[in-house]
Amino acid sequence: MRSSERKKHEKVRVGRPKVVHLASPRELAVEGERIYAERRDELEKTSSGKFAAIDVSNQKIYVADGAAEALVAGRRKQPNAILHLVKIGDKGAYKIGFSTRHAGPVRGR
Length: 109
Fold this sequence. Notes:
By secondary structure, this protein is α+β, with helices and mostly antiparallel strands. The protein has helices at residues 3-9, 25-47, 67-77, and strands spanning 51-55, 60-64, 83-87.
């Protein structure tokens, strides 16, 4: 089949999200934060304190009261979505830390 004939028979896919190839979780975070920054003002006015799951492949944002609910909403619409989670109007979705204090003396030394 010649290339001109092949083009006539090829199917055109319309409305499919772009394919995003991310090499690392850092790239996912950077892309998710970029999308969030573009819509930050709108989201903070309407949904401050809620969670947003951002699908980096199609730039759709799923907002819910809780983190799990936002992620589930994104997965329902796009089961293979690559999602970035943010808490709207906050520096991060969760705070993670540790303490070097011990509850008691360290034994065995």
